Prior knowledge:
Layout: H1 9-12, E1 21-33, E2 38-43, E3 51-55, H2 62-66, E4 73-82, E5 90-101, H3 116-121, H4 123-126, H5 130-152, E6 156-157, E7 163-164, E8 176-177, E9 204-206, H6 211-221, E10 223-231, E11 244-253, H7 257-278, H8 280-289, H9 294-303, E12 307-310, H10 311-323, H11 340-350, E13 355-361, E14 377-385, E15 389-396, H12 401-410, H13 419-426, E16 432-438, H14 439-447
Parallel strand pairs: 3-5, 6-10, 12-13
Antiparallel strand pairs: 1-2, 1-4, 2-3, 4-5, 7-9, 8-9, 10-11, 11-16, 13-14, 14-15, 15-16
Helix pairs in contact: 5-7, 5-8, 5-14, 7-9
The structure holds 4-amino-1,4-dioxobutan-2-aminium adenosine-5'-monophosphate (4AD) and magnesium ion.
Amino acid sequence: xxxxxxxxxxxxxxxxxxxxxxxxxxxxxxxxxxxxxxxxxxxxxxxxxxxxxxxxxxxxxxxxxxxxxxxxxxxxxxxxxxxxxxxxxxxxxxxxxxxxxxxxxxxxxxxxxxxxxxxxxxxxxxxxxxxxxxxxxxxxxxxxxxxxxxxxxxxxxxxxxxxxxxxxxxxxxxxxxxxxxxxxxxxxxxxxxxxxxxxxxxxxxxxxxxxxxxxxxxxxxxxxxxxxxxxxxxxxxxxxxxxxxxxxxxxxxxxxxxxxxxxxxxxxxxxxxxxxxxxxxxxxxxxxxxxxxxxxxxxxxxxxxxxxxxxxxxxxxxxxxxxxxxxxxxxxxxxxxxxxxxxxxxxxxxxxxxxxxxxxxxxxxxxxxxxxxxxxxxxxxxxxxxxxxxxxxxxxxxxxxxxxxxxxxxxxxxxxxxxxxxxxxxxxxxxxxxxxxxxxxxxxxxxxxxxxxxxxxxxxxxxxxxx
Length: 467
Ligand code: 4AD
Ligand code: MG
């Protein structure tokens, strides 16, 4: 007998050719038995929805049916029929069942309503739950939206290296890459490690950002974007930080500060609208189970103009709040970096919409940002989002060779690592700018999840690299 072709559950649920023979395969969510009839809810990951398999127990071996428990993997063949029950439009009147893999009662995802901390300890199996299925399908959809947006707007997908010898953000948060024997390191008279005989002949690390190479691409191809993993050895145990996260970094020639903010706003709204248009079932599930205001919040971000706020004005607002009795944990004054409580006050309480903050004091930003005429502030932009805080960091770049050089020496950035970057300013320099969007922060926003560890399949954080 020829095996009939498998139909994905997402497709089966849309079919209306009742009476047709269909085969579905997936993992059992629940199996309810009674004397007259068995109901199996089957999910194959193609959609949040299950398909109901209706089984006449008289027609099957009882021992076999008893092995079909939550988590087991089966193949079911039968007639597609219009469903009488509430909650589904079609179901399968089963006449053939096959068990691929049974699943014992020690299955860690058995019980509903486990804590997210418990799920993280079982990250290899949590993907089979409704919540993580929904998050992963949305994550995929956001990646597609990002490529589509940039492709449609004439940006080229540009691959910056993951192994690098320069520290883009200058924050010293890099993971080293070496083939040297760590138990037997060659050192000079001052006790410094000699890297001559290391794989790359110099100290190398995993990249914290593809921006510097992205600028080389943009000043040749006009507009590029990177989309890849980045690594930061910052010891931040927060629900917003990962040691390995994905970043999207567009870089554009001939763009000014207003153009950059327009791009940031348009791009992020496109991604959120994409989720609303393409991830309806998963969003409805998350809206019900995780965050009752999720869909409303997504819609409001698409509809609203982002506030554009110079840092100096932002500080004034925060100082006024303090004067009026608002309590912050950290002090706020011109020149200090904003803490997340300050960002959230501006976004969630004061303006109640996303804020693009600009023109930061140069001391609290990276060396490459364009210096304003006041000599004190730089054309950096952070996009601040409700619930998330900083979702994008970007800037117009300093394109003047001498000004950039001055900044590099003032900050003691080793010149030998930067010669190739400075060549962009030496040969046909041009105004340009770009930004970095933290992919997982976008997924946090779009899913309503609370912890960044729950929007990437296998999170890397301080002291955890399991799976
Ligand atoms: O603000 P950042 O550090 O900017 C840059 O790396 C620039 N080179 C980008 C550019 O202009 N091309 O990082 C950009 C974004 C942040 O706004 C945040 O969303 C995300 O990357 N991000 C992190 N996400 C998760 N875990 C971390 N440890 C993150 N650090 C930054
Ligand atoms: Mg930043």
